[in-house]
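Q: Sequence in, structure out?
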Amino acid sequence: MISKHLLLPCWEVDNVITSIDHNEIYIRGLRSLLLDVDGTLLSKNSSCLDKNVFSWVQKLKKVHKIYLISNNPSFSRIQAVAKELDLPFIHKALKPRTYFLIKALNEMGSDINEAAIIGDRIFTDVLAGNRIGIYTILVRSIEKGNRYKYNKTHNVEKFISSMLGAYKK
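A: Exactly. Output:
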């Protein structure tokens, strides 16, 4: 059985990633960030980053080490996003497995106590981050509309996390 704390984020943002204040990240002592791609930075149906997302990441790069980490099996899709943002990346990361998160943190030379993962999924991003003991930030999906309406996995995820208190009403 998965313990309750493994599915709870350290910080839940009730909006998309661009609503996170850069200073707040710094104040919380976070210096290295692992960013999920699909749903967090980019709509799953899009191949172009929104200009607000692009600007948000560029500003963040001035102060923080950043690494893209995605479960998406498409090397070319994640590589295109990484190229546009000029960031290192791992595709097919198999989150919530931890091997590639640890690999990315090691490549950045990051202190685990100053690292965080930002993503839109509890069962992948938050669970993986909690398994290796890094700070976890849960954001709303950048998808347009209600992302849970048409996806059974997301419905189950939302239900379980709400039962554990992760989603505040």
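Helices lie at 22-27, 51-61, 75-85, 99-108, 122-132, 152-163.
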